[in-house]
Design goal:
Shape: globular
Structural class: alpha+beta
Largest sheet: 4 strands, antiparallel
Number of strands: 16
Radius of gyration: 23 Å
Oligomer: single chain
Helix content: 25-40%
Strand content: 5-15%
């Protein structure tokens, strides 16, 4: 009996006096979080900010000329007002189908993507009679915009273990009696063929790895091929050798530098002055009370230092491991009533040869279940966003809250029942994030 009492006492003491994990560095000062030195981080930012030229491989179809063009506010890596266009339609079986977009006066059809690029490199002086601009076919009635995402602090997001996300989803389902129930999606890791991980990057959680995410964006947003995404969307007007992104003297390609830059960024920092006000502190309590924190999870912790992630291709370093950070998001997929029905186009995000690989834990049916779901928007840095939700269609915090339906129906109703002063307090809390 004494032994049991002593053991219980020890466990209780360990619970109350367990060491608190260190905080992830935060700020908008362009400094490294410690993954690399500041000089290396600055050099990587230069590549992130670099404007690509046709001679570099830009296009033939593209949306932007640099990473910074879409990820900049208030500094490189932040979000922006830039949006991208995605479309599709329902097939004869009622399921979502990717568009087929004719270019070059109908001589070529772009398939296997939901993204419609806004720009093209020709007609130009070298190809004066070649017209490859994409336009949405009238038959594709499913249409949406996707606002550019913040990538600051994403190194900490990448370093969260798959199990943490699985446990978060399981807890939500149990506590909410499956009314609020985040979906975990296993996605291909391009640098580890055959391996998958829990998706956490992109509005559809289409990537688990920042290197995969970088290669995807380089191809689909800028039209630049790499070792992980070696195939052009179209070869019309293309004169650059493939892959466009090749290793430099240090052995690193641009996609490696992009991934390292994002991994080394600090997390978005709160407005500390506003956060100390009584009204904002009261709003934080109400945020939890009405249930916003169910999906907008305040704190996550990263995996232990030395943990192998991304199919064994990346080891969690001391700068990222065993840290706590505060994204106010669960990085899971939810139906909150704003979904557009669009399903991830596999060749677009994982390459034209992705079906030639057997991917562990990959479930096409799980992907098909995500049509009306989007990733919970992490609220860190939300005070710096002028356009909200996945489509940027909400322009005030109140607008965004009131759009939440579906799984969030009960939470929205609780918010609506708050007295006006309490609603304002909750909004004031959000203005601190």
């Amino acid at each position: 009996m004494r032994f049991l009492i002593g053991l219980c006492g020890l466990l209780i003491s360990l619970f109350f006096f367990a060491p608190v994990l260190p905080e992830a560095p935060s700020g908008f000062d362009n400094k490294s979080n410690g993954l690399v030195d500041d000089a290396t981080h600055t050099t990587d930012q230069v590549k992130f900010d670099e404007i690509e030229q046709i001679s570099d491989g830009l296009g033939p179809l593209y949306n932007a000329q640099s990473c910074r063009e879409c990820h900049q506010n208030p500094t490189s890596g932040g979000s922006s007002q830039v949006s991208e266009l995605r479309v599709g339609h329902r097939g004869p079986d009622g399921k979502f189908a990717n568009p087929e977009i004719p270019i070059a006066r109908g001589t070529e059809i772009i398939k296997g993507r939901t993204l419609v690029n806004d720009r093209a490199i020709c007609p130009n002086s070298a190809f004066s009679s070649t017209e490859i601009q994409e336009r949405v076919p009238d038959s594709d009635k499913i249409r949406t915009f996707r606002i550019s995402l913040n990538v600051l602090g994403d190194g900490f997001v990448e370093a969260v273990s798959d199990k943490t996300f699985e446990d978060t989803a399981s807890d939500q389902c149990k506590k909410g009696r499956r009314k609020i129930c985040g979906q975990v999606l296993y996605v291909p890791i391009l640098e580890a063929p055959g391996q998958t991980g829990v998706g956490r990057f992109g509005w559809k959680d289409q990537h688990a790895s920042l290197l995969s995410f970088s290669a995807d964006a380089y191809l689909n947003e800028m039209g630049i091929t790499s070792r992980l995404q070696p195939d052009e969307v179209t070869n019309l007007c293309n004169t650059a050798s493939e892959p466009n992104d090749t290793p430099g003297p240090d052995g690193s390609s641009d996609i490696d530098r992009f991934a390292r830059f994002m991994r080394a960024t600090e997390a978005p920092v709160r407005d500390a002055q506003l956060a100390q006000t009584a009204n904002a502190r009261h709003g934080a309590e109400l945020f939890d009370k009405v249930g916003c924190d169910t999906c907008h999870v305040q704190t996550l912790t990263t995996a232990p230092v030395g943990t192998k992630i991304n199919g064994g291709t990346f080891t969690v370093p001391p700068a990222l491991g065993e840290k706590q950070f505060h994204p106010y998001g669960d990085f899971l997929l939810h139906n909150v009533g704003t979904g557009d029905g669009i399903v991830v186009a596999m060749p677009e995000h994982y390459g034209k040869k992705m079906y030639q690989v057997t991917w562990k834990n990959l479930s096409i049916s799980e992907f098909n279940n995500t049509g009306n779901k989007v990733r919970t928007a992490p609220l860190w840095g939300v005070r710096l966003h002028s356009r909200l939700m996945h489509d940027g269609a909400s322009v005030t915090l109140l607008d965004a809250i009131l759009r939440h339906r579906g799984e969030a129906e009960d939470v929205t109703e609780k918010f609506e029942k708050l007295k006006p002063s309490d609603k304002e307090a909750l909004l004031e809390f959000l203005r601190t994030l």
